[in-house]
Amino acid sequence: MTVVTETKPRAAEPTPPPGRPRRTISREAVAAWVLALPFVVLFLAFTAGPVLGSLGMSFTDIKQRDLRTPFAVDGVGFANYAKALSDETFRKAAFNTAYFVVVGVPLTLLVALAAAVLLDRGIKRFQALFKVGYYLPVVTSIVAIAVIWRFVLSPDNGLVNTVLSWVGIDGPNWLASKTWAMPSLIAMAVWRNFGSAMIIFLAGLQGIPHSVEEAGQIDGASAWQRFRYLILPLLRPTILFTSVTTGIGYLQFFEEPFVMTQGGPLDSTLSVSMYTYNQFGFGNYGLATSMAYILFVVIAVVTFIQFRLLREK
After folding, report:
1. Which tens digit of pLDDT belongs to each residue from 203-228?
2. Exposed/middle/buried for 28, CB within 10 Å: 0-12, 13-18, 19+?
3. Cα dist. 79→27, 37, 45, 59, 290 in Å?
4. What is the CA radius of gyration of the chain?
5. Which of 17, 83, 170, 204 has the most other CB atoms within 10 Å of its CB?
């Protein structure tokens, strides 16, 4: 005997009234904002706020005497930028900075790449010791390094001139010479910074499969041809990253001339960052911030060019 049960049809759900749909905030979203709130507050207070404030200062004639009444200053438009670009000393500092970057960045990357290849292909024993030794200057205080290099380059009893005297060469006063002061700073910067790029290059080399080089070897390519046409193209993202980070750091170089030469002799080692710092010290806040933003634009343009030239094709 079959029992037939009747099921009542399910009532249709009421359709929401036409109009804007209601949005509900999930507990996860609330929790995420609560956790992110300290960072957001600190970012707005100590990063975004000062950046926007300094940008506004660059369009005013604010000076040190105006700190008590910062809203009583007058707007000058782009006058500070025009004054900075027409300043002979600022142009000299810009040339010095370009010299430091154009020579220092490629030299740093070449030394770093050579050291990385040597560690990856040549040195097998005590490799960790060499890594630590090459990287140690990177984590050492730049002020301490600059002071030590001042003694190394001392004209009277410095290590460099002492070694040169052994072969009958009378070394110059490195840091007091307009010809040798900037190359001395570049040499110190390369020695200090190549360890960081070397570690990144070494990681990139170790990430390339050995089968790639083996295939080139089977085809009869020499060691240089394998490196030039197989390894270097695969290292393009690594080269891009190291060139961008190194270039940004070198465009802002400040501690080296500040500690070692004070921008001399005759402003031959004065950098844009150091000249901007000096203008802040003189109380020319509007002019100094305009110089800082000119440097910011240059860094952005140089970085864009590096991405265009070194991006993967």
Report:
1. 888 888 888 777 887 777 787 888 88
2. exposed
3. 51, 39, 28, 7, 9
4. 29
5. 204
